[in-house]
Design goal:
Chain A: Belongs to the class-I pyridoxal-phosphate-dependent aminotransferase family. LL-diaminopimelate aminotransferase subfamily. The complex is a heterodimer of chains A (575) and B (378). By secondary structure, chain A is an alpha+beta fold. Helices cover 29% and strands 18% of the residues of chain A. In chain A, a hairpin with a 5-residue loop joins strand 19 and strand 20. Classes of the chains: A alpha+beta (575), B alpha/beta (378). Chains A and B meet through helix 2, helix 3, helix 5, helix 7 and helix 8 of A and helix 2, helix 3, helix 4, helix 5 and helix 6 of B.
Chain lengths: 575, 378
């Protein structure tokens, strides 16, 4: 017997002027119902039957039960039948403007298949009726065809959707619920300020150039255009012994993280900060490196979670960390905002060396550092150790190791233009894999990473790369620093606000994130409370791992007036 | 390049790597210069309307990407290491290589020049009319199929694709259909999408690209269609997992590239693209005539920008070297696409007209007797 699909639809509050407590008559009209599909509405909140009476300000929530069929589209029309007195006032009724939810966001609301939540395709409110159109996923009946391909078990281990689309969904649902509210997004860390002119004009020029014979370029080197690689090396790694050849330009750090996971394969284990940017853990699960999710600890098996909390200054107690081949480390940290000190990173390098591990160092926020914290893992000197050159069978004749710094034998660094240049949509980043970094059999990691990049990737967009080159010109750097400075000012405003309200606040000095402590409270509850009461979107700390419970991340990307308004609202809520 | 060192004054003509050469029409590059708002949703809709009209594919089922090669790896991550795969032989190397990387392929068999766990479907020659004999193909979970084909240039007919879909349905397999060259089809009886075949939505994913359609090889834009009907054996929708991969391991194609893509699919843009495609196909015709005049058997070149030239009894690397040495023309040895590519050379039609004429002249001059050489060997 096939399961019944249930879809929930929450319709916007109608705003009607006039008398309180009018009657609503609910008329269910189903259309486009395909053979065998039955739709019967069950009203959840408030629990009512038709006809019903709903207090004016109440939002209406109902569930739609869809029994199996070939495919089902059902529409429920809720006709607001005003009381007789109001019938005369009909022309004065104020109607909420039509809203529709993007179907992309809705599609990704498949949560767990067993819960059978169907996506809401559109919500429209016009002509006095609220219409929720729900399309359930392909129903499983005795006639429905399935392939004989087993689902990748690793995908089944993932608990829910990726964190940020979930935040986007909640934001969208909130905007439907409060169509007049001015929702301010300090949740997803997406930049808001325009890209400096010097950078966009370089991209426009490159785009136009593509229409000329002289300016047209096809496939580029998968590792990136030489001038850009050289500019990255000289801008960020001057004097650190990293050369153009060690740089792999990409379409962003998140994509690089997945490629690094493909590089390492499924037989490695990883250590990750707790809390941390969700892509490290999620990509590890997808690659098959982890065990199953353990609900009690809220952790995946086989991952070493390195707790970072106020108690340890947001740097893990390495003596308590078990062995793992790969150590993901992000500094300045997303979400806590903590920037590791030189001393701390030296300990980390030492730890990696002792264990023969590889550090994957995420420096996407390095340009937000205000103090003298290291901006690159390659700033850390290692112990005196020299690899013999020319004796490695994997190297071609003439290739040799640099004896510069054995730091190169433990780390990969990944970074991005996203938060520096507002390139979150343009897509550009890079990964540094030093030639000296070797697998246990002596094979250079860079050779394999190059193979991955050539086989599983085809280079970053040439237009984005032109933009990247302009970013690293003197004028471009100056402009980027200005935008970064602007976001840092936003961060200061948010930090001051929460401090003035008596909260313990972390981060914010070296990163565009503020990590606010709500001791003893569930972070999703705080997220919901802030969203519901101030219409500000934040990110609940537990979305970043169990170590994030009790915290909320507030991002500082926003127009100044929105930041100020958000802070006003925080002060109102928590005074 | 070694050749450049050996022949410093030779003007090398590249008909090797299938990289587009003609500039992008202005209407498209201008659009990229002025970023279009909400390009992304509009992009998916435009793709659905342009390429999947009347095939009941909605914008929700389209995932815009930075190119087919990247999507193939994402599809491999989706399936994981425990699935079995079949590829055409010869085929675009990314299918096999990504399969090896993800752990599906098993060890390499030096003698057979094949990976032990991959099923290779022979379709590189006229012996099988460039379409595999499916009655000889064992069941695999995934079947990679490219049409029009890189490298052979063969565009599968409707009947052939119906057999493929039937085969997949019968075996409960998933076809990963690469339609990157669909816009080059001139024989309109050949399907441009697998979804033209009834029942394909329950057995196929389609991967495609703007690279060869619009000269976007450097701009980076493509898409993958995952129908909502496509399910795993337990009924779980494949699209749900693919969406998760795309959210976790990717962050979208460049917004600028997407604006360009949208302009490509505008009436003016699309017209301009077709003009460039015609240009390349006229190049292909010239090359086909050239090789034919040398009494060689030439395949492809009609529904794809690749010629598949047969040199019976030869080693394709030897032919590649001979052509390079004698005429300074770069091609690709068929062996590079798999064991089934031996004896063949792939010649691409992506070049300026002048280069094509020059290449033809050189080939005619140096190989006027080549056809006879291979005629005798047959």
């Amino acid at each position: 017997m096939s399961p019944v699909k249930v879809v929930s639809c929450s319709c916007p509050k109608p705003k009607l002027y006039g008398a309180q407590n009018r009657a609503f008559s609910i008329q269910h009209s189903a259309f486009n119902i395909e053979e065998g599909c039955k739709a019967s509405p069950v009203f959840r909140r408030p629990p009512i039957a038709s006809p019903l009476s709903v207090p004016q300000q109440q939002a209406l929530t109902f569930s739609l039960s869809l029994s199996p069929g070939k495919g089902c589209q059902s529409s429920i029309n809720l006709w607001l039948a005003p009381s007789p007195i109001l019938l005369l006032l009909l022309p004065l009724l104020s109607l909420v403007t039509p809203i529709s939810i993007s179907s992309q966001g809705a599609l990704s609301s498949f949560h767990s298949y067993s819960q059978s939540v169907a996506p809401i395709v559109a919500v429209r409110f016009k002509n006095g009726s609220i219409k929720c159109v729900a399309t359930p996923p392909a129903q499983q009946t005795t006639e429905a065809y399935t392939t004989k391909v087993s689902r990748n078990a690793n995908m089944g281990k993932l608990q829910a959707g990726y964190l940020f689309p979930e935040i986007a969904r909640r934001r969208a649902a909130h905007m439907v619920k409060y169509p007049d509210a001015k929702v301010i997004s300090l949740g997803i860390g997406d930049t808001t300020e325009p890209i400096p002119e010097v950078i966009t004009s370089a991209m426009a020029e490159r785009a136009h150039g593509l229409s000329t014979l002289g300016g047209y370029s096809g496939y580029g080197a998968e590792q990136g255009e030489k001038p850009l690689r050289a500019a990255i090396a000289s801008t960020f790694y001057e004097g650190l012994g990293i050369e153009e050849g060690d740089i792999f330009v990409s379409d962003g750090a998140k994509c690089d993280i997945a490629r690094l996971q493909m590089l390492f394969g499924s037989h490695v284990t990883m250590a990750v900060q707790d809390p941390s940017y969700p892509a490290y853990v999620d990509s590890s699960v997808i690659m098959g490196q982890t065990g199953v999710y353990q609900k009690d600890g809220e952790k995946y098996g086989k991952i070493e979670y390195m707790r970072c909390s106020p108690e340890n200054g947001f740097f893990p107690d390495l003596s308590a960390v078990g062995w793992a081949e790969i150590i993901f480390f992000c500094s300045p940290n997303n979400p806590t905002g903590a920037a590791a000190t030189r001393e701390q990173l030296t300990k980390l390098v030492q730890f990696a060396k002792e264990n023969g591990s590889i550090i994957v160092y995420d420096s996407a926020y390095a340009m937000y550092i205000s103090d003298d914290s290291p901006r690159s893992i390659f700033e850390i000197p290692g112990a005196k150790e020299v690899e013999s050159s020319g004796m490695n069978p994997w190297l071609a004749e003439g290739e040799a190791f640099s004896s510069w710094s054995p730091m190169f034998s433990v780390a990969i660094e990944t970074s991005s233009f996203s938060k520096y240049a507002g390139f979150t949509g343009v897509r550009l980043g890079w990964t540094v894999v030093p030639k000296e970094l070797l697998f246990s059999d002596g094979f250079p990691v860079a050779k394999d990473f190059n193979r991955i990049v050539c086989t599983c990737f085809n280079g970053a967009s040439n237009i984005s790369q032109a933009g990247g080159l302009a970013c690293l010109s003197p004028e471009g750097l100056k402009a980027m620093k200005q935008v970064i400075g602007f976001y840092k000012e936003n961060t200061d405003i948010i930090v001051d606000t929460f401090k003035s309200l008596g909260f313990n606040v972390y981060g914010g000095t070296n990163a565009p994130y503020v990590w606010v402590h709500f001791p003893g409270r569930s972070s999703w509850d705080v997220f919901s409370e802030i969203l519901e009461k101030t219409h500000v979107v934040t990110t609940p700390g537990s979305g970043f791992g169990p170590g994030g419970e009790g915290f909320v991340r507030v991002s500082a990307f926003g127009h100044r007036e929105n930041i100020l308004e958000a802070c006003r609202r925080f002060k109102q809520l928590y005074k | 390049m070694e050749h450049a060192n050996k022949y410093p004054h030779a003007r090398l003509i590249r008909l090797g790597v299938g990289d587009t050469t003609q500039p992008i029409p202005q209407v498209i590059s201008s659009a990229m210069a002025e970023l279009v708002e909400n390009a992304m949703q509009a992009m998916r809709k435009a793709i659905a309307e342009t390429f999947y009209k009347n095939m009941d594919i909605t914008s929700n089922e389209i995932f815009v990407s930075d190119g087919a090669q990247c999507d193939i790896s994402r599809v491999q991550m989706l399936f994981g290491s425990n699935v079995s795969v079949a590829v055409q032989d010869p085929s675009f190397p990314a299918y096999v290589d990504s399969s090896v990387i993800i752990g599906q392929a098993g060890n390499y068999d030096e003698k057979k020049c094949k990976y032990k766990k991959i099923v290779y479907m022979s379709c590189g020659s006229s012996d099988n009319n460039f379409f595999p004999d499916l009655s000889k193909v064992p069941r695999t979970d995934v079947i990679f199929f490219c049409s029009p084909n890189n490298p052979t240039g063969h565009a599968a007919s409707k009947a052939e694709l119906e057999r493929l879909v039937d085969f997949a349905r019968h075996n409960g397999s998933i076809i990963v259909y690469d339609s990157a060259y669909a816009s080059y089809i001139s024989d309109h009886s050949c399907p441009k999408s697998i979804f033209e075949v009834p029942g394909a939505k329950e057995v196929a994913i389609e991967v495609s690209s703007f690279s060869k359609l619009a000269g976007f090889t450097g701009v980076r834009l493509g898409w993958t269609v995952v129908p909502k009907e496509l399910s795993y054996s337990n009924g779980f929708p494949v699209i749900h997992d693919y969406n998760r991969i795309v959210c976790t391991c990717f962050n979208g194609a460049s917004n600028i590239a997407q604006a360009g893509g949208l302009a490509c699919l505008s009436p003016q843009g699309y017209k301009a693209l077709r003009s460039t495609i015609s240009y390349y196909m006229d190049n292909a015709k010239i090359l086909v005539d050239t090789f034919t005049s040398l009494r060689l058997n030439v395949y492809g070149g009609k529904n794809a920008p690749y010629l598949w030239v047969h040199f019976p009894g030869s080693k394709s690397w030897d032919i590649f070297n001979e052509i390079l040495d004698k005429t300074h023309i770069l091609t690709v040895p068929g062996r590079g696409f798999g064991y089934g590519g031996e004896e063949f050379i792939r010649v691409s039609a992506f070049a300026s007209r002048e280069a094509i004429f020059e290449a033809s002249a050189r080939l005619k001059k140096h190989f006027h007797d080549i056809g006879y050489r291979y005629l005798l060997r047959r």
